Amino acid sequence: xxxxxxYERGVFSSSALYTLKISTAKRSEELYFSAEYSHGPFPMAAxxxxxxxxxxxxxxxxxxxxxxxxxxxxxxxGEVPVKADSQVKFTGAVKSYVSFAPVKVESSKxxxxxxxxxxxxxxxxxxxxxxxxxxxxxxxxxxDTSPVRHLSFDGVRLELERIEQEDGVISGRYESNSKHFExxxxxxxxxxxxxxTALFMSGVWRDELINSVVAKYELGAIEVNGHDFGSVVFGxxxxxxxxKAEKALKHAKIEFKDDPEAxxxxxxxxxxxxxxxxxxxxAWKNAGGESVVNAMIAFQPVTDDxxxxxxIRDFSVxxxxxxxMVRSTIKPTxxxxxxxxxxIVDKGAQQYASLGLIRYDR
Length: 362
Prior knowledge:
Shape: globular
Distance between the termini: 66 Å
Order of helices and strands: EEEHEHEEEEEEEEEEEHHEEEHH
Radius of gyration: 28 Å
Structural class: alpha+beta
Number of helices: 6
Largest sheet: 18 strands, antiparallel
């Protein structure tokens, strides 16, 4: 609950005090914020900060060292834990820059959380017609003393974008990147390192119909206990998915779990939009080679439910498995595993090649 405690208006500026009350089943927090507003069209505070565009007002908000804020000041080593500068444009759009100070928090159970500066940027249009935001964290570390475990992220960046058109069509984009991730456990004798991880998602939808959602996940390098497992890329796409029909089917599965015939109508409602699911690609690459899978399945309304595959309009799979890539994932100290892989590939591949299902080039 956010409440305004006081407000004093001046000619060219105003000041206010707010309290943010957060209550859970276990505890309650109360944070106080001070806000200084500099009025437009060219606020003096904005000009001093190097912002020369016209605006309604320019605000500067700080978390105060009072109530629950005292603890936050302590773990932030005396720095102001939260600072925010915002610009309210004449169009109703708001641009905000929020900074969170580095913190070091130690729990009674022996867990320590440490962070660098965290920077948040948000550009929000009038009535939320668009949102463009990003979050940057230079590093974050979590350490357990019993048992000894360590988790760290370096170079983390999150981006979110959403745009709503006049005709109701909404497009969105989400992207997250991390330069380095590491997990180590002394008790488990394991160290896992991931380099250049990235997740990208974008989509277009209207009302409750998804026109298209594309996702791609990348792992630039995977290393476990010093052994290089290569890189992985996984991409996929959903098309023409009726969210309302999908939700109705979920509820129907609970209500008619013992009556499959009652579910046919709900399934047919989902198929009316002719949804498609594709994987493009699922790829694993290392020093030995690369294995790739591309697949797609497209559905259609069922005209004859006596045919098991009647709902499938199109289906395709294109896959390539590299023997040398699989062998490279196995440590040189495990020759038995390498031999087993060779035997499985030779026997299985030759069998299916003789049936004409695959092409085998050793």
